[in-house]
Amino acid sequence: MNELIRTHENENGHILVSGRELHEFLEVRTEYRKWFGRMTEYGFEENVDFLRVTQKCPTLGGVQEQVDHQIKIDMAKEIAMIQRTEKGKQARQYFLELERRWNSPEMVIKRAHEFLEQRVKALTTDNLVLSQQVNELQPKASYYDMVLQNKSLLSVSKIAKDYGMSARALNSKLHELGIQYKQGDIWLMYAKYQDKGYTQTTTHVIDAENSKVSTKWTQKGRLFIYDLLKQEGIYPVIERESQVV
b/e map of 164-185 (b: 16 or more CB within 10 Å)? Predict the structure, then answer.
């Protein structure tokens, strides 16, 4: 069947026709806006029988917005019949044949198969995305669980071991990232991090003239380091191992 007037299907399975293209095919001399307004007087309702749409059209003065309407096939048939012209008769017969083919068992089965294929594809994609999200979150949950289960204070060497690093390498990295600085033989947090509860520093008296400063990291500080290093693409060994295929 030759396509006299272009049609398309919307997401709800309705066949739609452009009001302006129907107007042009019917060779109506009245301006489209006035003609379509008269057609709606036959009881057609917006958002039920047709949808109002706009499109940009180039003109000599630039670009102008043009109003069109997406008409359902039943409305298009009635409009064609109302014209009482040869063109109207052709259009109506064309829409009737189009509708007959659309509702034929072959086309109904074909659309059902297409719908099922799209649905299966969508579900497959959703499942793959969900699976990836679970896998992405699992390593983080594993490490967080391990941290939350441990309430004790930790030396920097213990945290460094989580990443397969030495204490010296981790201290240097934290210095590079602007978290701490070295004062003599000890590492101290910059002022902006000192009241966050990341570390606890104690002084052990050795004798009357000597003492030793010891800084330990809290579990909160351990998670702070985790989030900080993750932004640098550095993950704990437990996460790197779980990502190996």
Answer: ebeeeebbebbeeeebbeeeee
For 32, residues 6+ apart whose C-beta sits below 8 A from its C-beta are 19, 20, 23
In one-letter notation, the amino acid at residue 206 is I
Total structural domains within the chain = 2
145 lies in the same domain as 229: yes
| Residue reference for tokens 């709606």 | 40
Residue 109 lies in a domain: no
Residue 23 sits in the same domain as residue 86: yes
pLDDT in tens, the chain (245 residues): 667 888 888 777 788 999 999 999 999 999 999 999 999 999 999 999 999 998 887 777 777 888 999 999 999 999 999 989 999 999 999 988 888 887 778 877 777 777 777 777 777 766 766 665 565 556 566 676 666 666 788 899 999 999 999 999 999 999 999 999 888 778 888 888 888 888 887 776 666 566 677 788 988 899 999 999 999 999 998 887 655 44
Nearest Cα to Cα of residue 155 among 232, 216, 110 = 216
> Does residue 2 sit within a domain?
no
User: Does 93 lie in the same domain as 26?
Assistant: yes
